[in-house]
Design a protein that fits this description.
alpha+beta; Phosphorylase Kinase, domain 1; Transferase(Phosphotransferase), domain 1; 5-stranded antiparallel sheet; 3-stranded antiparallel sheet; 38% helix
């Protein structure tokens, strides 16, 4: 696979802008390149010690129809992936509340993403995968077409179940700095008939949240 530098050169682009992109653990930058016709190309550059694992995971999921960004290039230390214009789910939740808008469509898209992940994760060739790992809402992007995409896949603990992951996502929603009534409604929309108060309380406890929020009414 081409390095990010060679990829841009081969495609006729020259980098014109590069700035830090939010990440809890790794060096991540968002870049913009232009060609001679002034067409722009936006991308993410991520440097991490376990970049080979992330490349394998992203390629496996992309090839199996799970919504993740496409890999564009890679060298020994850096992964270049497409930039998907949209907001993180954390931003989307707060923006929807601010505008008095319902979150149920995003909750449905997030659940669809999790279903698609669990349909294929057991076939991952490089180790046993039974969970989606770190389910922080900042790892997900909601795009204008109505789909949710997942960005980060660092080498970590990927053991669990669909139900564990679903309740962890609901717990992540409940820990957002939003009004209690709004985020409970959002978590309830995500869980639907899968809601298990005890499991949600356990997920909140693991994440350091307020277990009383597990009562969704």
């Amino acid at each position: 696979m081409q390095s990010p530098h060679d990829y841009l050169l081969y495609q006729g682009y020259e980098e014109c802008h590069n700035e830090p992109y939010p990440s809890r653990h790794n060096k991540v930058n968002m870049g913009v390149a232009l060609n001679q016709d002034c067409f722009s190309l936006e991308y993410i550059l991520k440097t991490a010690p376990d970049i080979d694992f992330e490349e394998k995971m992203l390629k496996f999921l992309f090839d199996n129809g799970v919504k993740v960004p496409k890999i564009m290039a890679k060298d020994e230390k850096t992964l270049m992936i497409e930039f998907l214009r949209g907001g993180t789910l954390s931003e989307a939740l707060r923006e929807r509340e601010k505008n008095g808008e319902d979150f149920s469509d995003i909750a449905a898209a997030l659940k669809d993403w999790l279903v698609s992940f669990h349909k294929v994760c057991g076939s991952f060739p490089d180790g046993k995968i039974t969970s989606a790992g770190d389910l922080s809402l900042t790892n997900f992007t909601f795009v204008s077409e109505g789909f949710v995409y997942r960005y980060d896949f660092e080498k970590e603990d990927y053991t669990g179940s669909f139900s564990d992951d679903l309740h962890t996502l609901a717990a992540e929603i409940l820990m957002e700095p939003c009004g209690e009534e709004y985020k409970k409604a959002a978590a309830k929309a995500l869980l639907g008939g899968d809601y298990d108060k005890e499991k949600l309380s356990g997920a909140l406890s693991r994440l350091g949240g307020e277990t009383g929020l597990a009562d969704l009414g």
